[in-house]
Target: Magnesium transporter
Amino acid sequence: MSSTPTRVYLARLVGLPIFDPQGDQVAKVRDIVVALRSSAASQPRVLGLVAEVFGRRRIFVPMTRVTNIDSGQVYTTGLLNMRRFEQRSTETLVMGQMLDRRVVITETGVQGTVYDVAMEQARNRDWVLSRVAVQEPSKGFRRRGQTHTVEWRDVEGLARREETQGATHLMATLSEMRPADAANVIHDLPQERRLAVVAAMGDERLADVLEELPEEDQVEILEQLDSERAADVLEEMSADDAADLIADLHPDTAATLLALMEPDEAEDVRRLMSYADETAGAMMTPEPVILSPDATIADALAHVRNPELTPALAALVYVCRQPLETPTGKLLGAAHIQRLLREPPSTLVAAALDDSMDPLRPDATIDEVAAHLATYNLVAAPVVDDEGRLLGAVTVDDLLDHMLPDNWRDQAERPGPITGPVPGGEG
Model:
């Protein structure tokens, strides 16, 4: 590792791409695994990296496989063992278990929390944790407390278990991740650490992350929140995801949370829950982009610029008679954004409708929905009732969520080791 910096701060490694010798990205860094020594003053040995491949799978990359680390990437020998990473009792995760740990600087008696740690290569070529970055609590009107960077041996408190560990600095790292990536980190945290992170998250961010977690994690987290906050988080989730989650709760808990939600939000969820599982009605999103017949293409483009819309939802707009909230008045048709981009902004959207698009019925099965989207090369399709009123839209991501097995986020074991680029490693 001749070109590797002599000291590497580990919080800065998280999210960096991992490349093989050919320059192909094979994974991303998600955490660092260390082994604490029996003597608290002895520098812990860095065992390796927790890396994410195949979009979701987490594997272990020993430090002996790391050939170079620079400011923007990590290089390996290219040989990866694809067995899923399982943390051992003798191992500690830097991001998951060290950040935000309360410590004391022994020489000065200063107390604070850990916001980063650094590793260096020892004479025997092992990597060890060498320095600790500590932040004091804020005082008065100061935005942040004073920071200190000290030798590992000069800090007390990192070797012992702490039940009330905070989450401030881990939250700073999670805030820069996509919801799916943050969900992966939270899924792997010890239970007490996960609770601290969830408590520190805002309702909207927690809702985004919950939508990416396995069902059992969703239920466990929601049941640990007080009822008022749980209802607030459900309101921030998309109605179809909230309906799926509420359906997994105990009926008494579900009834309590629905009663605490805003009436309009609860009504959307109840309506989705009224449809049979694995049907268009149960899968659909009740809030697609809906426009009146007098809306212009400029109006449509302004609506789909909303960053909260998924790409699939932003691909189509639906023109309906009043009322414009589902269930709407009669659906007049749908228009593809790609078509609207080719038309003058002052043109009415109603003049660019796709006359060939047939709507789905709410009782359409998952296979019928898949066949419909595949046949007509669609990423979304309207769902209407017997009177032709728009009830919602089924998107391809809704479909995939229901077609994939329940444990798709925990992919099946793959044999390893393998060499070369890992399919799906980018992202």
